[in-house]
Structures
1.
Amino acid sequence: MKLVTAIIQPERLEAVREALLKAEVFRITVNRCTGRGQAQETELYRGQAVAPDLLPKVRLDIACNDEFVEKAVAAILNAARHSDGEVGDGKIFVTPLEECIRIRTGERGSDAI
Amino acid sequence: MPRGKLRTWSILGILLVPALCQADEPAIDTGTTAWMLTSTALVLLMVPGLGLFYGGLVRTKNVIGTLMHAFAAMAVVGVVWTVCGYAMCFGASKGWCGWDPEMLFLMGIENNIMEDARIPELVFAMFQGKFAIITPALIAGAFAERVRFRGYCVFIALWSLLIYNPLCHWVWGGGFLTGKAIDFAGGTVIHISSGVAGLVCALYLGARRGYPKTAMHPNNLVLTMLGAGLLWVGWFGFNAGSSVSSGLQTAQALTVTQIAAATGALTWVCIEGMIHKKATSLGLASGILAGLVAITPAAGDVRPVGAMVLGVIAAFGCYGAIQLKGKLGYDDTLDVFGIHGVAGIIGAIGLCFFLRTVPDHGIGAQLGYQVEGVLVSIVYASVMTLIIAVVVDKTVGLKLDDDGQRAGMDHELHGEQGYGLLNLN
C-alpha cells in the first residue's frame, strides 16, 4: 500500500479529478493548502502585479494498493501539467503506507483501501 | 464668530433659501424628489444584491467572475445610458426607439423640472438608468460560469442599446404600447425580456462542462441570502419609486410589493416542505424573487389580495418551471427564465383579474393588451438576443472554452480568487 500525495495548482483540480476517475481511482481526499515551491506566480491587486510569498495550492491524498500507484501518478502528471510544464505545476510524493483500517467494519490492510 | 451671531445668520439663511428657490424653480415637489432620490439609490442597491445572490450560487472558482457580471453592468450600462440610452428611451421623436439629440450626454435636461411629477428630470433619468443597469445584469445568471468577460461586456452594451432601450421606449417612453399594456415597474420591459434573453443565451451557448452529470454546488448560500435580502429592500424603490410620486399610489405599490414577496416565499417553502419535508434557504429566496417579479408589472394597479394570489401563483409557476428545466435538460444555470421570465409573464397577464379599477374598455380588452405586450417582449427579445449572442460570440468571443471553465472564471479571466481567507498568506 502506498500514499500518493500530490500538490497541484488549484485551477488544475478539475482536470486531475477527471483524469483520476478515468484511471478508476475514485477514493480521494482533497484539501486547500498554501505553500511555496519555486514558483513566482503573480496576482493582480488594484492594477499592480504582485507575487505573494505563499501561494494557494490544492493537496490530494490518495491511499491505494501498489498496482494503482503508477496509474494514479500517470493520471496526475498528465492532467496537472501545463502544456510543456511550468514552474509551479506541483509535486507528487509517494510514501509507504503501513496500515489502513476501515472504521465501519474494522477491516485492515489492502482490502480496506 | 459668537454663537448668537451665527444663529442669526443661519436663520437669515434658512429664510432666504426658499425665497431663492421660489424665484428660480417654482415647480419642484421636494417630497417627491426626496423619495425619487431614495428610490434611485435603492434600485442601484439591487445590483450588488443580485451579484451576491448569483455569486453565492456558483462554484467557488467562479464567485468573483459572477459578481463582476453585476458590477460590470453598473459600469458599462451606466456609461451607455448617459451617452444615448436616455435619449433612446425618452426622446420625443417616435419610432423603433425614441430620439432627441438634445438629450445625448443628458445635456439638454440639466435644468429641466418635469411638469407632471415636479421633480428634476435628472432624477428621473438616473432612476430609469438603474433599471437599464439591472436588466442585462439579470441575464448573466442564465449563462453563469461559462462566458468570457470581454464578450459579456460587449454583449450587455449591445443588449442595452438594441433591446432594452426600444422596449423601454415602446412601453414607457411614448411608443406604441404606451397607455395600452399595464406595466407598472417593468414586467415586460425588464423581467420577461431578460428572462427570455437568458433562455436564448443558455440554449445558444450550451451547457456548462459536465452539466448535468456533475454536481455543481453553491459555494456560499450565505451570500445568496444576503443578496436576496438586498433585492427585497431595493425592490421597494423599484416598485414604489415607479409611481414617480410620493403619495397614495406609492403607498399602494409599496404595500403590494411587501405582500407578494412574503406570500411567494411562504408558498415556496410550503411546496418544498410538502415534497421534500425540508425547507431550503434557496427555496425561500427563490420564492421571494418569484413574488417580487410577479408583482412588478402589477404594483400600481392591484389590491393586497390580488398581490397574495399573484405571489402564490408565481411560486407554483416558477417551482414548476424549474422542475421542467431539469427534465428538458437545458442549462439556464441560475434559472433566469424559470424565475424572471415565468413570474414576469404570470404577473403581466394575471394582473388583469385583480385590478383596483377596471378600465373603461373592460377586462377582456385589457387582457388583450397585456398578451400583446408579453408577446412583443418575448418575440423581440428572443430574436434580437440570438442575433447579438451570435455576433458577439463569433467576433469578440462569448463562450469560455473547456480549459477556461475547468480553471474557473476567477483565475482564467480576472487573475484573482474569491476566498483568500481560506488560504494562509
Note: The mean pLDDT of chain A is 90.
2.
Amino acid sequence: MTALINLVYLISVSLFIVGLQRLSSPKTASSGNLIAALGMGLGVLIALFSPMESGNDNYLIIIGALVFGSGIGLVVAGKVLMTKMPEMVSLFNGLGGACALLISIAELLNFHDSGTFELAPYLTTLLALLIGSIAFTGSLVAYGKLSGNIKDSWKLPRANMINVVLLLTLIAASVYQLQVLDTMDLVYIIMILSLIYGITFVLNVGGADMPVIISILNALTGVSAALAGIIYDNMIMLMGGILVGSSGGILTLLMCQAMNRSLLNVLAGDFGGTSSGAVQVGDQMVKEVNIMDASIMLRYSTNVVIVPGYGMAVAQAQKICKELEDLLEEVEVNVRYAIHPVAGRMPGHMNVLLAEADVDYSKLLDLDDANKFLNDADVTIVVGANDVVNPSALDDPGSPIYGMPILEILKGKHVIVLKRGMSSGYSGIENPLFFHEKTSMLFGDAKKSLNNLLDELKTIV
Amino acid sequence: MNLIIEIFTYHLTILFALIMAIFLGFELISKVPTVLHTPLMSGANAISGVVIIGAIILVRSSGSEDYVSLALGSLAILLGTINVVGGHAVTNRMLQMFRKK
C-alpha cells in the first residue's frame, strides 16, 4: 500500500514537471496546464485516501470544503476579465499564502500541545508561518493597488525604516522563540508582525513596479508551500512549492533586469519624481496630427508597429488594435506588436490581452526582436505606453531610468503617440519622445482615437 | 550549530530533493517564452496551492473534538482549493486564447 502511494506521488510530481515543460510553447501550453492540474488531482486523492496513523478522517468537513472551494474558484475564474488578470492572480496567490499560514499555526499548536518536539521541524513550521503571512497580506495589498482601491499615494512616512525595523524584529523574535520555546504567545506576535510587514512592504512599492512585486509574492507562496512540504515530509508539496518558487524567482529577476534596477531599489520604492538632471522640456512644442493624415501615413506604410502599454488595458483597446491590424494587413501593410517585458501590471500582461483579441502570437515581438524590426518601421503607434519608450533611458545619464532597456521606436521613420493629455507617465518622469521631430501626438482616449483611425482608414483602403 | 546538524540528519533526503528541484525549476522556467509569462505565473500560482494536501492531512489526522485544528484546517482547505481550482481554470481560459488561430 505504501509503495502504491509513493508511486502515485512520484507520478504526480512528474506530471507537474511535464506540465511546466509544455509551457515552453504556446502550442503545447494548454495541455501543460491540464497535465499539471491532473498531477494536483492525483496528489489530493492520495492525501484523501492514504491510511493514517491517527485521527478521525473527518471526511465530511474535507469534502465540503473541497466542493465549496472548487465552486467559488470556478465561478470567479470564469467571470474575470482578461484586463483584470493581475488582480486575480494576486488574490489567488494571497489565498495560497493564507492556506500555508493556517496549517502552520495549527501544526505549531500541535507541537506545543504534545510538549515533545524537535527543533528542526519547529523552525521549518515557524518559517512557513512567517512567509505565508507575508505572502497573504502582501498579495491582498497588491490586489487593492491593482484594482485601484488602494491609492499609490498612500505611503507611510519613513516607510523604508519601518520595513527594516519590522524585518529585524521578526528575525530577532523568531530566534528568541527557538531558544525558549515555552509558549505560543511569541508565535502569535510573530504572525501579527509578519502580516503587518506584508502590508507595509507592498504599500511602499509604486504601481508601475507591480510586475516585480507580483513575481516576488508568487515566489514567497511557493516557498511557504515547499516548507509545508518539509513539515509533512511530503515530496509533492515540496517539489510543487520549489517549482513555483523558481518560477517567481526567475520572473522577479527578469522584471528587474527589464527595468535595469536592483530588487532593493524596487522594494525601497524611491523611483521617479526626482529627475533633477533630466532634460528640461518645459518650453518645447509638441506636434499634433489629425486623424486623416495619420490614416494616410498608415495606409502607405510597409511596416507598422503597435506598442501597447497599461493604457491599452485601461481603455480596453486591444480588440480595436486587432481590427486595425486586419484592415492594414488586407492592403499588405505588415503589422507587429512590440511588447516590453514590464508593459502592463504583470509579466506578459499585454500578450494575454492581445491573444484575447485573437492576435496571432507570432506577431507579438519581445524586446530584442522588436528592436530589430523597428529599424524598418515606417509608423510606430504608441497605445498607452510611456516609460518603456522613453529615449532618456538611452542618452540622458541624469534620468532616473537611464540604462533601462527600452523599445527604440525612434529608429523608425514616424511615431504616433495616442495619449489623453500631456501628463507625464506613471513614474512621473518627463518623456522627450513627445517633443521629438519624428513624433506626432494624437490626443484623446486611446480607444476612441483608434476607432476614428479605423473609420477613416476604411474610406481609403 | 546543533540546529544545523539536526536539520541535516532529520531531513537529508528532502534536502537532496530540494537542491535538485531548485535547479530543475530554473531550467524549466527559463525556457518559457515571454509571451506566456502571465499564464506561467497563474499556472505556477495554482500549483502553489499544493499546500491543500498539507491541510487535508492536518484535518484527517485531527480528532473530531480538536475544534481548533479542524477549524484552521478546513478554512485552509477552502482557501487553498479556491487557489488551485480557480488558478488552473483561469490559466486554461488564457491558454485557450493562445491556441486558437
Note: DSSP finds 17 helices and six strands in chain A.
3.
Amino acid sequence: METLAWICLFAPLAGVATLTVAGSRISRGAAAWVGTLFAFVAFAAAIGELIGMLGEGASQRAHTYTAWTWAGSGTFHVPLGVLIDPLSVTEMLVVAGVGAVIVMYSIGYLHGDVKERRFFVYMDFFLFSMLLLVMADNFVLLLAGWGLVGLSSYLLIGFWHERPEPVAAAKKAFVMNAMGDVGIAVAIFFMVRDLGTTDFGSVFSSASQHWAKGSPIANWVALGLLLGAVAKSAQIPLHTWLPDAMEGPTPVSALIHAATMVTAGVYLVARCHVLFVNAPDIQALVALLGVATLLMAGVIALVQTDIKRIIAYSTMSQIGYMFTAVGIGAYSAGMFHLLTHAFFKGLLFLGAGVVIHALGGEQDVRRMGGLGAALPKTKWFMWIGTVALIGFWPLSKDGILASGLEKGGTAATIVWVGGLAGAFLTGIYATRLMRLTFYGERSRYAAEHLHSGHGEGPWVMMLPVAVLAIGTLLSGFLAIGFGVNQTFGDWLANAAPTIEPSTSEDVVTTAIAWALGAAGGVLAWRAYAQPGLLERLKRPFGRTPAIAEHKFYWDELYDTIAYIPAAALAVSIYRFIERWVVWGTVDLVAFLVRMLARGTADAQTGVVRQYATVLVAGAAVLGVYFLSRATL
Amino acid sequence: MTTALIFLPLAGCVVVGLLPLPRRGTELLALAVALAEAVLGAIALVGFDVGGGVQFAQNTRWISDFGAGVPVRYHVGMGGLSLFMVLLTAVGIAAAIGAAMVAGRERVRVYLALMLLLEFALVLLFTAQELVLFYLGWEAMMIPLYVLMGTWGGEGRRRATIQFVVYTMIGSLLMLVAIAVLGVSAHTFELSALTSHPHESTWLFLAFAAAFCIKAPLFPLHGWLPSAYRESTIEVTALLSGVISKAGAYGLIVFAVPLFPSVAHDWRWLFLGLGLAGLIYGAVVAFRQEDARGVVAYSSLSQMNLIIIGIFAFNSNGVTGAIFQMVNHGVVSVAAFLLIGLVELRAGTDRFRVLGGLANGRPVLSTVFLIAALWALAVPGSSIFVSELYILIGAFQQQAVLGGVAAVGIVLAAMYMLRWYSALAHEGDGEKVSPETPDLRIGELAIAVPLLLILFALTAYPWGVMQRVTTSQVAFDTPAKVQHL
C-alpha cells in the first residue's frame, strides 16, 4: 500500500506542476478538468488505502513509510515519512473525497473567470498541503503541512486581489495562523530537546516517561499544540480571521473554511491525545474554549446578514463542539462530527454558492427571500444540510454530548449544558437562514437579479451538491453500525479512543437536543413569518444584539492592544533608535577617521574615482610585493 | 580544482576587461565565465565526498619568510561549508551578470570585469585554509566593491560607499592585527595548525569577531547597511545581501569560533543577545519601510542576526541550521533584490506609494514574486523553514526563553513579507504602473527561474546540503566539548 500512499499525497502536487508548466497553453476549461482529475486520483488512492486496511486485523492497521531523510543535523533527523492508520485514512478520505467533489463544483462556479487556471492550481496545492498535514508521521512535516494549508488559504482568500478587502482578509488569516505555527514550533522545541525526535511513535511512547503528568513542560507542550489548533480551527481567542475569510470564492469557503482545513485542530488534538492526556488542565481548557466558542459563534450567527458569514459562524460553532469532544476525551466522537460536518457544511456552502451564483454575486440574505420556487433542488438539498446541522441526523453532535454526560466532572458537565444550549441556538440560526433565503416574499433585488431561464446551475455544480447530500444522509449509519461491519468508534479505537455513553445517556441527551433544536427552529420560523414578533422577541435583550452584530468587539480589541501599539513602536524605533543611534555610530566612525587623517587632509579630494585609482594602485603594489617574495 | 575555481574568474576579469569587444560580446563573455564557474562548482559538488573533511586541497609553499620568520603557504581547499559558499558565489555572480545585461549598465566592460574580480576574491576567501590568504581575499573583495558602489548607483552613492568602506575597514584592520599576532606567536598561519592549539586571548577573538560582525552585520553594527543597499545598483545590493554578508558569518564559523573556542563560548551571550535584538529589530523596522529595497534590506539584517544566533547556540542543530540558512538566504535574497530591480526597470522606482497592481494581468511576474516572497518569509515546508527551525531548536537547547522569543520572528517575517508582496502586486494599479507595464520577458525569466529551481531543489532535499556540512563543525558539537578543547 506504500505506493498508493505516495500517489495520494503527491497526485495533487503533480496537478499543480502540470497546470503551472502548461500555463496558458491549455484552455481554461481544460485546466479546470485537469485540476479536478488530479484531485480524484488522490481520492481513488485514499479509497485504495481504506480497502487495504479493512482487510487487515485491527492491531495491524498502522504503517509508516519513509521516502528519504528530509533534513538533519548531527543529532536530530526528520524523515519524509507518512503514517497510514485509521485516523489518517479517515482524514485522507474526507480531504481527498470532499475535496475532489468541491474542486469539480468549482468548474462551474469559476467558469469564465480570467484567473480560472490559477484557481485550480491553488486548489490542488491546498489538497497536497492538507494531505501532507494529515499523513505526516512526525511533527516537523505536520507543521510543514500546517503552514502550507495556511498559505493555500491565504492565496485563495485573496484570490480576487484587485479589491482591498480580500487582500486584508488574506493577510489577517495568514498572520493569525502564523501565531499558531509558533505554538506548534515551541512544542517541537521541547520534543527535540528532551526526546531527541519528533516522530509520532517515539514521541507518544516516551512523552509520559520524560514529562510527568501535569508537569510544567507537559503543559507547555500541550499548550503550544493547542495554540496551533485554536488558530487553525478559529476558536477563541484566535477566531477573528474566519468570518473575514469569506471574501474568498465560495468553493474555497466550502472546502477550506468548512470541510477540511479549519477542522485540522480537532485532528491535531485527536492525533496527539497522549500529550493532552498527559496535561489534564490543558485538555480541560480545550473543552472549555470549545464551549465558549460554540456559544459565542452561535449567538453571532443569529444576527449576521451575509449568507456566507452565517454559515462561517455556524462552522466556528460546530468546530467548538468538536473541540469539546476531544477536550473531554471523546476523540472518535469528535472525529465523527468532523466527518459528518465535512459533508453537511460543504453541502450548505455549495448550496449557498448556487444561490449567490444565481443572484449574480449577492450575499446579503435581506436581498433574497422567496427563492425556493426558482431554486427548488437547491432548497431541498440545503434542507438536508440544515437538518443535519441542527442535529436530527446523523447524530454526531449528540454523541459528543452524551459522552460528556458519561464522563462527568466539571468540564464535561459544562460541555453537556453548553452544548445543549448551543443546540437551541443552532436551531434558530439554521432555520432563519433557510427562511430568509428561500421563503417569504421575494425581495425586489432578487426579483430583478435572479437569472431566469438557465436553471439552478450546470450539472458540474449540482452533482457535487447531490453527492454531499447523499454523504450526509449515509454517514449517520457509520455511527450506529447499521449496514457496516464495524461502527466508526471501533474503527478508530486504536488510533483515537473514545468514551462509550450508555444507551440511556444517549437517548436522554438526544431527546433534549432534538427538542431544543426543534424549538429553536419553530421559534425562528414563526418570528420571521409574523411581522412584529421578531421585535417583541428582541426587546428583552436590550443592546445584546448590537454587541453580537459587532462580533463581541474582538477586532477592535486586537487593534487597540496589539496592532496600533506595535505599529507605533515600529515607527518610533525607526525614527529614534535607527536614525539617531545606529546611523550615529556611522557618523562617529567617520568623524574619528577624519580626526586621525587630518595630517593627510590634502589627499582628501573627495572624488571617488581618485580614491579608486589609489586603491587599485596600492593593491597592485601589494600584489607585486607578494609575488616577488613567492618561492613557488 | 579549488585553484581552478579561484583563478577562473580572475582570468575572466582580465580578458573581459582588456578585450575590446562590443557590448553584447563583452556581456556574453562575462556570462560564459560566470556560468563556467558555476559548472565547475557543480562538478566539485558531485565529486564531493560526504564526511571527507577538507577536499580538493592544494598546499604549496608560497613565501618562506613573511616576516619574523613565519612562512606563508598557498593552502586552499573546500569542506562542505566552503563548497556551498563557493556555489552560492558562483550562482549569485552569474545571476548578477545576467541582471546587469537586462539592465544595460554603462561602461559595461569595467562593470563586468569588476564583478568577476569580486568573484575571485570571494572564492579565495571562502576556500583559503591559511590566514594570510584568507585576509588577502577579504581585502581584495573590498576593491571591486568600492568601485562598483562608488561609480554606479543612485544619487547618494558616494556617501554610502565611504560609510561602507570606512566602517568595514575598521573591522578589517583589527583582524589584520589579530592575524599578525596570532601568526607570529604560533609561528604559522595554517588554519588547521592554529585550531588544533586554540588560543585563549579575549582581545584577539573580539578583533576577529568585530570584522565579521560588521560585515554580517550584527545589530547594532549595521549603520552602513541601509544606504549601501539603497544606493548601489541592484546587482551589487543583491550580492551584498546574498553573498558578501555570508562572508561575515563564514568567518565566524570557520575562524573566530574554532580559533578561540572557549573564549567564544564564554562570550556567547553577547552575540546571542545582540542577535536576538537584531532579529526582532530588523523585522520590526522592515515592517514600516516605504520602499521595496528597504523591506528586504532590513529583513536581511533580521535573517543575518538569526544566523548569528544559530552559530552561538553552540550545538549541532544551531550551527547546521545557520549554515543551511546561509545558503537559503543567499539564494532568496539575490532573487528578491534582482526582482526588485525588474520592478525598478519598469516603474523607475521602488516606492510602495506609487506601485501596486503588478499582479493584474501579469501572471508570470506575480507568480515569481510570490514564490520569492514565500521563501523569504520561511513558509513552513520551504528550505528556509527547515534552516530556521534548526536554528531555533539550537537556540532553544541553549536557552528555552531565547528560542521561544526568537520564534516570534516567524510571525514578524510573515507580516513584513506579505506587506511587501501586497504593496507591489495587489489591488489597483499604482501611479507608476499602467496596463502597458509588461510581464516578465524571456531574458528576465532566465535569471529568475534558475534561482527558483535551486530553492525548490533545496526544499525537496535539505539533507543534501545538511549532511555535507555537519562534519565541518567540530568546535560546535557540544558546549562541554568546547570547554575541554
Note: Chain B is about 75% helix and 5% strand.
4.
Amino acid sequence: MTSLLDVKDLEVSFKTYGGEVKAVRGVDFHINQGEVLAIVGESGCGKSVTAQTIMGLLPKKVSMIKGGNVTFQGEEILGLPKKKMQKIKGSKIGLISQDPMTSLNPTMKIGSQIAETIKKHTDLPKYQIKNRTIELLGLVGIPNPEKRYSQYPHELSGGMRQRVLIAMALSCEPQLIIADEPTTALDVTIQAQILDLLKDLQQRLNTSILIITHDLGVVAEIAQRVSVMYAGKVIESGTVEEIFDNPKHPYTWGLLNSIPKYTNGEKERLVPIEGSPPDLFAPPAGCPFAPRCEYAMEICIGEMPDAKQISESHHAKCWLNDPRAPIVEGLVAAGRNE
Amino acid sequence: MSNSLLEVKKVKKYFNVGGNDYLKAVDDISFAINKGETFGLVGESGSGKSTLGRTVVGLHNATDGSIVFNGKDTGKLKGKEAREFNRTMQMIFQDPHASLNPRMRVMDIIAEGIDAHGLLKGKERKERVFQLLEKVGLRPEHAKRYPHEFSGGQRQRIGIARALAVEPEFIVADEPISALDVSVQAQIVNLMEDLKKDEGLTYLFIAHDLGMVKHISDRIGVMYLGNMMEMAESDALFDEPLHPYTQALLSAIPVPNPKEIGKRERIVLQGDPPSPITPPSGCRFRTRCPHAMEICAEVTPEWREARDNHWVACHLYNS
C-alpha cells in the first residue's frame, strides 16, 4: 500500500533572540488512505509545528526547515511555492485548527466563509456554491443550516463553530484532514459529539485524518495508529493496541501512568514523570528523555537510539529494546491488564 | 451536619447583563464541606462552578443566601474577623501564567499574603518563603527569580506556595491542573494530596476533568447551568450516577484504553447547553435530556436524598 502522506526526517528550527530553537528534530511518519493517525505529546514537543510545516503555515521570517521530505500522493510538497501550495491546501488537505473562537472571521457570515473556499477551488456556479455550503453545514450536524448560513460566528456556540471549521475543511472533499487539537477547547459532552462526527465522516468519505492531541483518551477513541512525540522526535509509533497494551518506551509508560485509572475501586497514587522536558535551544545528544527516565543507562545520555522494530507496525526509540539491555520490570501501562 | 467546616446555604449569584436581564450563574445551591474533606465540583463551561468557587472565597458577593465558615456567616464579618477569614480561606487559580504578577519576584509573590496580614518580617519572612518553596518542591534560590523563568508546573507550585503562606484551613482550587500537561498534572495532584495530609487542609476542587476529580475527591457535586444536579461520594457517583446529565457526562469521557471502546454505551447528548440568561423552565437539563417528561418542563425537580448520602435533582427519582 502506498501512503497518502509521507513525512521523512523533518527538521524545523525557529530563530529567536536566545538562539535557534530546534522544535522538530527528525520526524518520520506516514498515513495511508482512509487511516486515522494520532500524534500525541505534551506541549512543546513539536507536534503542532509538524502539522504547520506540512500545511506550509510556518511563519517565514523566523522559521527554518532544515531538512527532510514531505510527500503527498507521491509529490514533494515541502517548500512548494505559495501559489501551488494554496491549490493543495483546502482542496486536497483540509485543516481543522484548535481554537474555533479565533479561527473564524468575526465579521463574515459563516456561510460566506465556507463558500469562499469552494469558490476558490472549484468552478461551481454561484447558486450551487450556496447549496453545497448548506449541504455541508447539514453534513456536520448543524441544525437549520439555511438559517445558520447567514449568521455570524458570535451567534454560534463553541461546538457549533468547531463544526463550521470541519465543514470548511471538508468543503472540497480533501483526501487528508489535519486536525490540530480539534476538541481541546471543548467540553466533554461536545467533544464526544465532535469525535463521533469525525469518525463518521472518515468512514463515510474514506478521508485520512492526522489528529494531533495530548489526550490519550481521544487517541484511543479515534485513532488506528499512534506516534508519540517527545522533544521534537517521534519516540514510539505503532497501532493503538500496541501503544496502549505493549508500550516499549519509558516515556509512553509515563504518559499512561499519569492518568488516573478509574476502573478499579482502590485509589492509587498517581505516578507522574518527574522533572520537565529538555531545553530545545540545546537539545541533548543522547535520548532526550534520559534525564527524566528511571531506567536511563550510560549509553542513553551519549547516544540517541535508532528506531527498534518491535513488530511490522511498532517501532520504539529506546535502548531498553536492544538485545544487550537489561530486562526491566515491564511497567506495561501499569496495572491496565487486570 | 455538625462537623462541617463550610456550609453553602441557598446561594445565588446573578450578574446583570444589561436592562432587567440577569445571568443566573449560580442559582440556589446548598451543600456542606466537612473538615479534612476534598469536595470536587464538576460541570461544563458556563455551569457556574468557578463563580460558585469565587463566591465561596468572597471574590464575589452572593446575590442571596449565605456562606457559613466555621459557624460564622462570612457575609456579615467585619474588621478583624473579616481579615481572619481572608487568611483562612485561600485560592489557587487556573492559569499559572496569568495569576502571578510578572513584575514581582517569587519571594514577594509568595510573601504577599504574609505582608498583607503583617504576619512575619525580615529574616523570618525570608525563611518562611524558603521553607514554603521547599514544601512545594522548588529550591530556595528560586525566590530571587521572576515568574517567566518557570514552566507551567513550577508556576502552579508557586501559586500553591502563595496560598499556603498564610496557613489557611481551606483552599479553593479553581481548575488548578487544566492548563498543565498530563505528566505534570499528576505531579501537582500528588503535591496537593501530600499538603492536605501534612497541613490538615480542606479543599474545594473545581475541574472539568472528571478522571482527576474522581481521583482526588471524597465527594463530588455535579453542576449544570447554575444548578446542582447531583452530589454523592465519588465512588458512588461514578458507579451509579443517577441524574441523566451525570450519566451522559461520565459516558462522554474518552477512556484511554482501546479495549474499552465499543464496550461502553455512550450517551451522546444532542445540542448545546441553553443560555443561562433564559434557562429552560422546570428542570434546566430537560432540553437535552433523553428521559425528559412532561413534568420536567413544569416543575423544578426537588433536591432530594435518593440514596444514602446521594443527592439528586431529577423527577425520575420522585418516590
Note: Chain A has two domains: 3-223, 248-321.
